[in-house]
Amino acid sequence: MKSSDILKRIKEANYFRGIPSCSMLKGCETLHDLVALLTTPEGIIFAKQTKFPTLDVLRDKDVKPILFNFGIMVDKDLKVSNIPLLILAGKGHSHLTYDDNRKSYTLVVMHGHKVTVTAANGALVLLHNIDSDVRIETENFAKVIKL
């Protein structure tokens, strides 16, 4: 299926009915544009308000390959450190470590993903939790701010 067909299907779905933020989709011509939008602050807020994209959309065989390039992982177990922007969704249990205080980090966890966040050495992590199980450990002046 072409990305334009997937995008059309998403735009025509009932997900956006009555949601003022759907005007954000103007200018999205490709699925690539839509996924890029999800990684912006406005896109993250939109996802929090609407719980869109759904797990079914994220798991779509035509969508999933595009997600990886944007740091969006679906149904994956991860053990990584200091990833500036990471969006985790679906089945999976991840352990994330943030310990570089020269950057700030954005983490979005959605649709039931389980994650343990360890922040240390003054690191700053902005956490968006959308219906997931998040365990937070901090040390040495690190902060995890729940948004």
Could you explain the architecture of this structure?
The protein has helices at residues 3-12, 31-38, 41-50, 55-59, 64-68; strands at 72-74, 79-81, 85-89, 93-98, 104-110, 114-119, 124-130, 133-138, 143-146. It is built from five helices and nine strands, in the order αααααβββββββββ. It has two domains: 1-66, no CATH class; 71-147. Helix content is 26%, strand content 32%. The strands form two sheets. A five-stranded parallel beta sheet has the order 1-3-5-7-9. It is an alpha/beta fold.
Structural class: alpha/beta
Strand-residue proportion: 25-35%
Order of helix and strand elements from N to C terminus: HHHHHEEEEEEEEE
* Percent of residues in helices: 25-40%
**Radius of gyration (Å):** 16 Å
Task: Say how many strands there are.
Answer: 9
Mean pLDDT: 85
In whole angstroms, the N-to-C terminal distance is 36 Å
Strands of the widest sheet, in order across it, are 1-3-5-7-9
Low-confidence segments, given as residue ranges, are 17-21
The coarse overall form would be elongated
Count of spatially separate domains: 2
Q: Number of helical runs?
A: 5
Largest sheet: 5 strands, parallel
